[in-house]
Amino acid sequence: MLRRVLAAVAGLLPALLTAPAAQAAATCAEPAVRTYGPASVTGAIVGSAVHDGRAYVVTRGPKPPVLAELDLSTRKVIRSVTLPDGPATGEPEGGWGIAVSGGKVYVGTYPVPDLYSFDIATGEVRHLHSFGRNGGFVWSLAAAPDGTLYAGTYPGGRVFEYVPATGAVRDFGVLAQGERYARAVAADDEYVYAGLLDKAKLVRIDRTSGAVQQLAAAPTGVGVVTLHGDRVLAAAGGELIDVRKDGSDPRRVKLESGTLDALAVTGDGTVYATSRPDGAVHRYRTGDTALTRVADAPAPGDETRLIQPVGENALIGFAGSGGVWTLDPSTGASEFTDLLDAGLPPGTERPQSMLLVPNRAVYVGGHFSMEVRDLRTGDKRRFRLPGEPKDLVRRGDKIYAAMYPSGQIVSIDLRTDEVRGVGFLGHGQQRPWDIEYDPVTDKLLVASAPLGANLKGALSVVDPRTGAIDVYVDVIPDQSLMSLSLDAKRGVVYLGGDVLGGGGVPPVHTTASVAAFDLRSRKVLWQVDPVPGHRTFQDIKVHGDLLYAVYKRDSGTWTAMDLTTRKVVRQGTIAGYGELTVHRGRVFTSVFRGGGNAYLLGDEAKLLATGLGDEWYTNPQLHFVPGAWDAWALVGRDLARIRLDPACPPLTVPPAGN
């Protein structure tokens, strides 16, 4: 009997031993990727123009971008075309620069700085010229009275001339040493007027000789320029500059707070200006000592791409989120139309941020909007936001978003989708990169960078109950902050720097620093430079006694630093840069380049998946399901749930749609 039992056990032993392996193999063989369609759909716009009862708008984000024609009498899109790839420069994603002249609409695009024309009569679209390489912008476009076009560009900060009749191109050269952005242009018979962002100048270029004359120095970058009679009007932050075309008789008025983002002049010389984030409309005439607030625009918190007088007592405006409005400034009466409702073809965009609320929903931040997928029902919904949510964090029944370009922190109610402002970082900190919640102090922590020619970033400590914000500017001297990581038990937040700051000014350091900041004393405990010559952290994450980091410059370098000795104990190279996350006691990252890869970081980097694509607008993220190896992420521009089990072989993700 005993012999038969032993024989039976011996016969079962191979099956018992191979059962876990077989189970693991079956798990790894299950469908590893599920996609759920576009992660974020948008109607956001950039370039806008009005001509002969029609408006022309260019979408922002989708590839290829759409140029749409809107009948202003019916508020309906009556025609739309796409802007195809340039023959050698790549795919445009939008067009800031737009001008109408000679029966054609001209569009200057990004991130390829190309020029296109749209024939209003025939609908023909043509690629005309490229002003540079992939990674550039045509920020602004203006037509002179004779039809010659002038393009303000990035990153060279140059103005180019293009003659439609011949295709001749002229480069006016360096307008100010070190300038990157010719952000706004206007033109008359003799001159081109350009607003420079980094060097904060309003300049005039002689169209014949190319001579450059400074008309005004500004307190910050000049982002809007328009003309009326013998005067030039420009907006620089919250200041309106009013000067004669020869630089004489300068006048200035300033908002108490906020930024002027669009200007329009009526026939009698009345200037209307919109401001953000309050969404107000102001009036000014030469000789006034202040701007007069006359009404609230119907898109508070939005960016105004264009305002223009229509009729005797009306303004028309175009909101960056994808809307058109009219306003009677004498009464404040207004009407707003969402361009998607008007028939603008919706487009799939590159997402800004993502947040998983387990067993409830996935939130995806886009341009001026939030897309929500309900995990219980599969339904999707979308609501507006005042800008770009660069990062998201949850606190109780609210999500908090760090917004660009306002530097505002907003709350989003999980039950109602109500969006409310918490406060503005101020201090020039308009580019928040990272936000975390400290449950011990019940505070939000924000890492930020300035805009323009400024090196000094900040750590902000935000009280979500009161809106009080303590801003610690230059906490890492002469560096902006790209990332932070909280060690709540120790009451310390670790900060990752970037020596380039807002750009446009030479850095004073060659190596990005890590600093430890004590949240009780509000003091820096220590600062180190982990890897000499590496200038920018993309993300840092504390895990136990190690601080993991992924660098943006040099791209793909990752490290683990011992927090006791402050020495790098592990270092390697992966395909690119992205965000780090800790899940089930392990450190993961998803990165750009290499086709879009995910890794497990330990003694070395282990590739878990490739083929995710490079379609994040900010940085690739992974959001793991608690207790599982599944993570919410992107495949291309689609929302996806991906198995990233370290015990499984590396996963090759098929392209979205396959």
From TrEMBL:
Keyword set, alphabetical order: Signal
Signal sequence, start to end: 1-24
Protein origin, superkingdom: Bacteria
Domain spans labelled Pyrrolo-quinoline quinone repeat: 42-181, 201-419
Gene3D superfamilies: 2.40.128.630, YVTN repeat-like/Quinoprotein amine dehydrogenase (2.130.10.10)
Matches recorded under PANTHER family: DIHYDRO-HEME D1 DEHYDROGENASE (PTHR47197:SF3), PROTEIN NIRF (PTHR47197)
Protein name in the entry: PQQ-binding-like beta-propeller repeat protein
Organism expressing this protein natively: Nonomuraea indica
